[in-house]
Design brief:
With about 350 residues, the chain is an all-alpha fold. It has helices at about 1-30, 35-40, 50-60, 65-75, 115-120, 125-155, 160-170, 175-190, 210-245, 250-255, 260-270, 275-280, 285-290, 295-300, 305-315, 320-345. α6 packs antiparallel against α7 (about 160-170) and α6 (about 125-155) crosses α13 (about 285-290).
C-alpha cells in the first residue's frame, strides 16, 4: 500500500499544477482590471489616478509580466519591484503558494487570503462553515439513502419500492436552488419556524451552550436539506441496483440454504459486497457538495467558501479565487485517494500495485 500511496501522491503534483495553471490563465484573460480594483480598495478613485500611479500599481501586481511568469511568481513568490527612483514598491510581497502564502486579497478589506478562508479561529472560519455543511449533508444522505436502497432491493417492485422511488425521483428532479425558495417562504417567512440567513442568530455569544447548539441546528436544517435531498434518489437507486445484482449470486443462495437468517444474508453477505462501488461513489461526494454550495450559500447568506468564491469572482479577486481553486482541487484528489485506499479495508482481497 505504501508504494501505491507514493505513486498516487506523485500523480497529484502535476494534476494540481495543471488545474491551477488553467484557472490562473482563465482569470488572467477574463475581463476586468485588477489594478483598478486594487486602487479602489486602497481608497484611490480610478478616474483620478495618474498614469504613473496606474503603471506602478500594475507593476506591483506583476500585471506587466507574461501570464506564465506571473504563474511562476504565484507559485514561488513575488520578486521585488522598483519604481523609477529605485525604491521597492511591493514591500509586503507574497512568498508563494509553495510556502503556504496565498497572498493578499484584492478586495476592499485587503486582508490576507488565508485569514479570509481559515479565519483567526478554525471553527469560526468560512472553510469550517462549508465543510461542516458538507459533512452533515453526506451523513444525512447515507443515513437516509442506504437503508432505503437496501429495503427497496429486498422489496423489489412492491409498494415500498414504488412509492419511495416516485417520491425520491420527484425530489431529484427539482434543483436545490429552486427548492430553497419555497422552503424559505414557508418555514422562515410565513411561519417563522426556522431561520434562513447566516449561521448564527443575533445575540449568539450571550446564549447558553444548549441554546447555542439549538440555534446552530436551526440554521443548518434548511440548507442541509437542500444540499442533500438530491443525493437520496441517486444513492438509494445505486444501492438498490447493486444489491439486486449481488442477491442473484450463488454465494447468497448458498448462505440461505445453510439456514442463515434473512437479515444476516442481507447485511453480512449481500450489503458488504456493495460497499466497494459505494466507496468509489462516496469518494466524489465531498467535492461535489463543496463545489455546488455556491448558489445555496448565496441564497441562505451562509458564511462559507462557496459564497466567498462567488463574491471573489465578481470582484476579480484573483488571489482568493486561486486559493479556493487549490483547496477544491485538493479535496477532489483527496476524496478519490481515500476511496481507493478504503477498498483494502472493505475487501482484504484487494491488492495494491
Amino acid at each position: 500500500m505504501l508504494k501505491y500511496l507514493i505513486k498516487r501522491l506523485l500523480i497529484v503534483i502535476p494534476t494540481l499544477l495543471g488545474i491551477t495553471f488553467i484557472t490562473f490563465s482563465t482569470m488572467a484573460l477574463s475581463p476586468g482590471d485588477p489594478a483598478m480594483i486594487a486602487a479602489q480598495a486602497d481608497g484611490q478613485i480610478s478616474s483620478d489616478m495618474s498614469k504613473e500611479t496606474y503603471q506602478l500599481m500594475r507593476k506591483e501586481l506583476l500585471l506587466d509580466e507574461p501570464i506564465v511568469m506571473r504563474y511562476v511568481y504565484w507559485l514561488a513568490g513575488h520578486p521585488a519591484r522598483y519604481d523609477d527612483n529605485g525604491e521597492v514598491i511591493n514591500k509586503t510581497r507574497p512568498k508563494g503558494i509553495l510556502r503556504g502564502d496565498f497572498g493578499t486579497s484584492m478586495a476592499q478589506d485587503r486582508r490576507a487570503v488565508a485569514d479570509k478562508i481559515f479565519g483567526p479561529s478554525f471553527f469560526e472560519s468560512r472553510f469550517w462553515a462549508t465543510m461542516s455543511l458538507a459533512l452533515l449533508a453526506i451523513g444525512s444522505s447515507l443515513l437516509i439513502a442506504v437503508p432505503i436502497g437496501v429495503i427497496q432491493s429486498v422489496k423489489q417492485d412492491k409498494a415500498f419500492d414504488k412509492v419511495t422511488s416516485t417520491i425520491l425521483y420527484g425530489l431529484y428532479s427539482i434543483p436545490s436552488y429552486v427548492m430553497a425558495i419555497p422552503l424559505v417562504l414557508v418555514f422562515a417567512v410565513k411561519y417563522k419556524l426556522l431561520p434562513f440567513q447566516g449561521m448564527k442568530s443575533e445575540g449568539y455569544a450571550e446564549m447558553t451552550s444548549a441554546m447555542q447548539c439549538a440555534d446552530l441546528l436551526k440554521h443548518y436544517i434548511l440548507i442541509t436539506f437542500c444540499s442533500s435531498y438530491g443525493a437520496w434518489a441517486y444513492y438509494s437507486r445505486f444501492i438498490r441496483q447493486n444489491m439486486l445484482e449481488v442477491l442473484r449470486q450463488d454465494y447468497v443462495r448458498t448462505a440461505r440454504s445453510k439456514g442463515l437468517s434473512e437479515s444476516t444474508v442481507i447485511i453480512k453477505h449481500a450489503f458488504r459486497n456493495t460497499l466497494i462501488p459505494l466507496a468509489t461513489l462516496m469518494g466524489m461526494i465531498l467535492p461535489v457538495i463543496v463545489g455546488g454550495s455556491v448558489i445555496l450559500e448565496t441564497i441562505f447568506s451562509w458564511p462559507g467558501i462557496g459564497r466567498l468564491m462567488f463574491d471573489s469572482i465578481l470582484q476579480r479577486d484573483y488571489n482568493t479565487v486561486m486559493a479556493l481553486t487549490v483547496i477544491s482541487a485538493a479535496l477532489v484528489l483527496l476524496g478519490t485517494l481515500l476511496a481507493d485506499l478504503s477498498y483494502g479495508i472493505i475487501d482484504p482481497r484487494v491488492k495494491y500495485e
